[in-house]
Amino acid sequence: MEPAALILVADTSLPSLLWLGLLGALVALDDVSLAQTWFGQPLPAALLTGFLCGDPLTGLAVGLPLQLVLAGNLPVGQTFTGDPGPAVVAVVAGVCLSGHAFEPALTNSSNMQLGILGWSVLLAGLLSALGHPLVQAERKANGLLMLQGHKTLRDGSLGRMEALHLRCLGTTFLRGFSLVLIYLLVIMKFWIPLFAYLPDRLQLAMGMLPILLPGLGLGTIIDRYGLQRSWPWFLGGLLLAVAGGLLTGGV
């Protein structure tokens, strides 16, 4: 069997999009709704997407910096923020389907691909933050829905609770599935093409972002395990990277 035959996501055809949507739905469910294997964390989700697209190294390059910056942001009850799973799936898939590979970026820091890597990591973080209000709204709606379960205390109908639970799981599944497809459209049609129009110094700043973020992200473990301060650390790393790129861009 040719290696290419193992690639499940090779283009934007319907089967490929269905595989990506399914993966996004599964990592969304994995946060707290289902098995909670933590495969929905940025690094595992990115690696799984990379394997589907035939480029696990790209998954590693995108997922590792974001995983480290959110090292203390674990999916335990209501204590975590953001929605990184679907965001990372969409970003890694968008990069792969756009024809970019990050192997040169990991060995040659002057390569333009390093800038695109930072640009992709930035978007993964922004989309994760954007998804947080959706997660909170979904949980509030699920909470109201499950209030109907009090009737079970009177009649003992466990089937009602199971049906309500399935509706909650279905809502999460639909959120993860649809967000991946929406994000993928934004990434391929807007975000990655936009990189070519950035000033040279800003492109260089984006290339510094994956290098700076992991070290800054480890500080989240010290600061209340990162449960409250992950995104300020992320934004601080971004500002530092941009400042460094702008200062050294002319060198």
Structure notes:
The chain is an all-alpha fold. The protein contains 10 helices and no strands. Helix 1 runs antiparallel to helix 4.
Structural descriptors:
10 helices; 0% strand; single chain; 251 residues; disordered N terminus
Task: Give the topology, please.
Blueprint: H1 14-30, H2 42-52, H3 56-69, H4 84-97, H5 103-107, H6 112-146, H7 152-155, H8 158-195, H9 200-222, H10 230-248
> How large a portion of the residues is in β-strands, by DSSP E?
under 5%
Mean pLDDT: 79
What helical percentage do the residues reach?
Answer: over 70%
Rg is: 19 Å
Quick overview of this protein structure:
The protein has 10 helices and no strands.
